[in-house]
């Protein structure tokens, strides 16, 4: 299997796992909120011993239902209900709602995207009315996500990010170092047809310089005749000697700066890439050192 496909597959698998873990944490947070609403509502019912809402609220509910000739939904901010909540973040966003269960209404609550508790059917002792009671909390998806446990999701996303960065660096290094040949401190990668110096920095040859370097690099003993070079670079020119001479003259300083190689002309018949002698390298170092101290 191609290593790139495998790397992408592992990255996608890690990201999907992160998303699934995040979704699981989100749903788990909603379940915890629902459980908190349920226990708070039960404790409130036990504390009030059946008198959950006031008689005035029940009378107001009946009048509103008669006037509206339809469903009525009352939202009551109940302090005791909010005090019974374990999660302090829910206290300012939780309210109580009730329906009267009779021949007109079966006690069903309207559909809502808010998180709610289970419905409790209780008997209001003071009025003898049967009530369907439910608690709600107003929370946005962002709030629920912030309250959820996203440690596994974050960890998997972080691992996926590290994997992506590592894969990119590995592929980049493989492209640079894969099928690399070296000669005289110069490196050539056949994967991307590029020359590099000893620090793995690409050398900016002109297109003609790059083509000449490739020809000399792949030639036997790194040497080619002048006629073969001219025929390959300028096939339509009858006499390209001067053009070749200019090309070589401009290429020499670039090559000698970034490597230990030099282009040597053999009696005007051929050109070759050769490693500079140690004495020449030492002379170049002395000249560079002398010029440095002179400037200072």
UniProtKB/TrEMBL annotation:
Keywords of this entry: DNA-binding, Membrane, Transmembrane, Transmembrane helix
Annotated ranges, domain OmpR/PhoB-type: 200-273
One Gene Ontology term from the biological process aspect of the record: regulation of DNA-templated transcription
Pfam families attached to this UniProt entry: Trans_reg_C
InterPro entries: OmpR/PhoB-type_DNA-bd (IPR001867), Sig_transdc_resp-reg_C-effctor (IPR016032), WH-like_DNA-bd_sf (IPR036388)
GO MF, one example: DNA binding
Residues forming coiled coils: none
Transmembrane segments: 152-169
Protein name according to UniProt: Transcriptional regulator domain-containing protein
Organism: Phocaeicola salanitronis (strain DSM 18170 / JCM 13657 / CCUG 60908 / BL78) (Bacteroides salanitronis)
Source taxonomy: Bacteria, Pseudomonadati, Bacteroidota, Bacteroidia, Bacteroidales
